[in-house]
Amino acid sequence: xxxxxxxxxxxxxxxxxxxxxxxxxxxxxxxxxxxxxxxxxxxxxxxxxxxxxxxxxxxxxxxxxxxxxxxxxxxxxxxxxxxxxxxxxxxxxxxxxxxxxxxxxxxxxxxxxxxxxxxxxxxxxxxxxxxxxxxxxxxxxxxxxxxxxxxxxxxxxxxxxxxxxxxxxxxxxxxxxxxxxxxxxxxxxxxxxxxxxxxxxxxxxxxxxxxxxxxxxxxxxxxxxxxxxxxxxxxxxxxxxxxxxxxxxxxxxxxxxxxxxxxxxxxxxxxxxxxxxxxxxxxxxxxxxxxxxxxxxxxxxxxxxxxxxxxxxxxxxxxxxxxxxxxxxxxxxxxxxxxxxxxxxxxxxxxxxxxxxxxxxxxxxxxxxxxxxxxxxxxxxxxx
Amino acid sequence: xxxxxxxxxxxxxxxxxxxxxxxxxxxxxxxxxxxxxxxxxxxxxxxxxxxxxxxxxxxxxxxxxxxxxxxxxxxxxxxxxxxxxxxxxxxxxxxxxxxxxxxxxxxxxxxxxxxxxxxxxxxxxxxxxxxxxxxxxxxxxxxxxxxxxxxxxxxxxxxxxxxxxxxxxxxxxxxxxxxxxxxxxxxxxxxxxxxxxxxxxxxxxxxxxxxxxxxxxxxxxxxxxxxxxxxxxxxxxxxxxxxxx
Amino acid sequence: xxxxxxxxxxxxxxxxxxxxxxxxxxxxxxxxxxxxxxxxxxxxxxxxxxxxxxxxxxxxxxxxxxxxxxxxxxxxxxxxxxxxxxxxxxxxxxxxxxxxxxxxxxxxxxxxxxxxxxxxxxxxxxxxxxxxxxxxxxxxxxxxxxxxxxxxxxxxxxxxxxxxxxxxxxxxxxxxxxxxxxxxxxxxxxxxxxxxxxxxxxxxxxxxxxxxxxxxxxxxxxxxxxxxxxxxxxxxxxxxxxxxxxxxxxxxxxxxxxxxxxxxxxxxxxxxxxxxxxxxxxxxxxxxxxxxxxxxxxxxxxxxxxxxxxxxxxxxxxxxxxxxxxxxxxxxxxxxxxxxxxxxxxxxxxxxxxxxxxxxxxxxxxxxxxxxxxxxxxxxxxxxxxxxxxxxxxxxxxxxxxxxxxxxxxxxxxxxxxxxxxxxxxxxxxxxxxxxxxxxxxxxxxxxxxxxxxxxxxxxxxxxxxxxxxxxxxxxxxxxxxxxxxxxxxxxxxxxxxxxxxxxxxxxxxxxxxxxxxxxxxxxxxxxxxxxxxxxxxxxxxxxxxxxxxxxxxxxxxxxx
Lengths: 384, 245, 561
What we know:
The complex is a heterotrimer of chains A (384), B (245) and C (561).
Chain A: H1 14-47, H2 68-97, E1 105-111, E2 114-118, E3 124-127, E4 147-151, E5 156-162, E6 167-171, E7 176-180, E8 186-190, E9 196-202, E10 215-220, H3 222-229, H4 246-256, E11 280-282, E12 288-290, H5 293-301, H6 325-337
Parallel strand pairs in A: 1-5, 4-10
Antiparallel strand pairs in A: 1-2, 2-3, 5-8, 6-7, 6-9, 9-10, 11-12
Helix pairs in contact in A: 1-2, 4-6, 5-6
Chain B: H1 3-7, H2 15-50, H3 52-59, H4 64-89, H5 93-123, E1 137-139, E2 150-153, H6 154-161, H7 165-201, H8 211-235
Antiparallel strand pairs in B: 1-2
Helix pairs in contact in B: 2-8, 3-7, 4-5, 4-8, 5-7, 7-8
Chain C: H1 3-12, H2 31-35, H3 40-68, H4 79-98, H5 101-114, H6 123-145, H7 159-163, H8 168-195, H9 208-242, H10 258-292, H11 299-312, H12 328-356, H13 365-388, H14 390-396, H15 400-430, E1 432-433, H16 436-463, H17 477-507, E2 509-510
Antiparallel strand pairs in C: 1-2
Helix pairs in contact in C: 3-4, 3-5, 3-6, 3-17, 4-6, 5-8, 5-9, 5-15, 6-8, 8-9, 9-10, 9-11, 10-12, 10-13, 10-15, 11-12, 12-13, 13-15, 13-16, 15-16, 16-17
């Protein structure tokens, strides 16, 4: 295991190079000073030790009271050195806080105990250990779930907030971290300079699973990044809809149109829609139907035409004014993709970031995206 | 044995050292009180700067007439307790007892008015810890007939003006915390004053043993001074259309 | 003479008019003579007993934390338990040990003696401070035992007020009460030093331990009330949330601001670390001079640097918040000010080192602790600079680098100072001497243990391992194991130290008034001192460290006796 450890941490962003320089020069100067002081102490302890060890009491020593010159020297010189460090540190900090104007923005919302990352194109990633127990069976691979992908050599700005308590989004390889404070947006930026996979940690104590609010950031070449955005490859097996695919947008609509109100896991008013696509289902009044795209479309446009056996005809219809054709496709694509256990929880609250994209790019009328106020009640729940 | 020796505590060398120590001790303690209240004043001021409209609206609901009466009571009590020091220095036991009693009663009067005020706040639904917050029927200052009848709730009035109820809640929390802690200090002060009155009654305060009165008066003046900052901060942050009881 | 005067005379004399020449330990044997004592020395011993117990508790909690970190997924407890354990470790160590330790024991015991006084200025306030501390400790321990606190000792809302379902209010209330104890002790020390110095004891002849205690007490007096208000507001918010009528002083969902808590909290908690370290620095001045037989190099500089640390220490609190969301300009200001606060500590280190020059150095246990302080505190102090520097703090904030830094200053600084003081003044407090051989072993072993425990953590922090993590990436395991191994060395050392110290009561040689041949006023008094400290008020004729002239402060010879 020791052989697998890197001696120095990865330096994967432009800022990392600056921060490392600062840290190492500081260490060198302070370390040298410290060692020099230790050497002097050791020297004095050896040279000026008592002639008769074990004896106590009077021994002839000179009465030295001090030296103004030396006091001045070792006041002014350290102060100047510390001020130099301050200046350099402030310069690096300045770089870290001020992104280039045209950097694309990625929105991240922290909540106990995951990060919800949203890309400008609508792609979303959830970072965090979704299983609350460390999965030894997966050989540690399941330890990190959710991978955020970034292109190398392109600046990116992140806008961060929290839904509940204070978190902190930290990437050691980028030498950066910033608190995610509820009720406000903070931002920082990165310029990844090296491809690879690096850790993301939550760096502000936030409760029971603070140490599981971790993930990975994968820096790839520009073309690979674009392919990932298009959904051509995934970062790992997962339940997350991690790309900008139709299924993902359909999921957004599923919640926005309040389908989730009835089609929830409690099966209170309507059947759960997991894994129903292309299955045969009994309908009221006898007979069966295959739940293919057309049936799904009909169930949305004219729900009371063919009601599933065992359920009441209470579903409202969604005409073209409520759900456009493109949207319908997306909803159906979502229902097609819905696997067991993936029905969203009813109280799930996805904060839309300021200026964030809640519509797909090809929608005719973009609506205004006003950010929802973080729900104080979605506090200590453990979300999957 | 002279009166001086009786007053001298065993660990001090002389009476001047003892008096000096007692005075310095009280001044140090007052410094801690200044920082304690300073902290909450700071927090209050931060929100005052951020939410001026809500703060003004909340402040104008407070009873500034009662606050004014309370200010007069406290200032007068500071006067009487200062006279009490003089009475003690002159060995005038009767005057000392009377002045201490008046001071204590003025302080008690302050607390009575405070109790009345808190009750009024509760009746008007201004106590943030209670379920009736904002829901009681109160007088609408914008009503045209000046009847002072209770016709709307605060929640309705605030909604009309675009004021956030949770910010009023925040103001009222600060109000109760600040006046509550201050009130606690007044009660402790009243206790100290009545203890002094008891000592005067027993004849234990003489012309040479008056420092207890002096340091207690320092504490009382500080509590009064804190009120002099508290009152404008809390009560005068908003406008008051009429003085009413 | 009136009855009133007689009564007054009786009431204000706790001791008979002419006290017998009896040591404070023998002046009354019943438990009540201890529990109702107003003797500053007995109060110091009461603090010592309870502090030792709390240190043991805090140390055991540390052991549990380190044991759990042996494996990457938590070796002995689940996440929730771990969070409660490290919170308990922080709360107990900080509020029930570090802050009261040297002021409560050596401050109470020795400040009056070192200035030639009979007692503290306010003896009854002194015993009250012990009881208040015990009441606060009771609430805190109750909270920790009945379900615990899982917020971290820093108690940040909105987690602590809204999201944590642990014993926040009783725990915070306990800490709140212990704060009053610190204020009372600080007030007592300030007034004592101002008003009760013996004739000839000018400010310029005050032992540096007293200067350090004075500076510490200033901080205790002025900073602790701000913690009190921060905790009061937090308790109100937490309580109101628990009762279902939430008010949001620090909760953004209700228009409050979480950063307001952080500002109020750190306004106290940063000066609090100087409350912890300044007394230890004062002790080091006493030890280095005695065991190198030299005057302190630069008395004025060392004295004023203590006050300087206290004053500037109030101006730097937001360096704990560089990534918390403060403005860029605020961050610049606080980083700049933090550089200024580093300078007085540097001055002290250089002055102490120069004190050794051309001395006659012997290496009894107190000296080993003092030299260990010089080395380990320097590490802690120097590693504070990358944290105060904005660019590097971006990376190091809330990682194990910070944990290593503060443990080096608190354990390698403060605890070494405390142990050094205990070993130096043990013969004076109890009239017996402990084993020289074992004490030297214990001192060396402690230093080795500390270094082993905390040095790997710097590297872990630089690699990015966050604080307060029961689960961590597997590649960090070997450094964590090394750190835990260091803990076992420390634990062994502490057991050794307590063994030979307690054994000294039974088998230790009787100690004379001045076993080290030291020059302070406390070494003029008997070992252990009589209840009134001195038979008659001493008259001070020279400075506190006239070792080359072999003079105590009363002008007598500072020979071993």
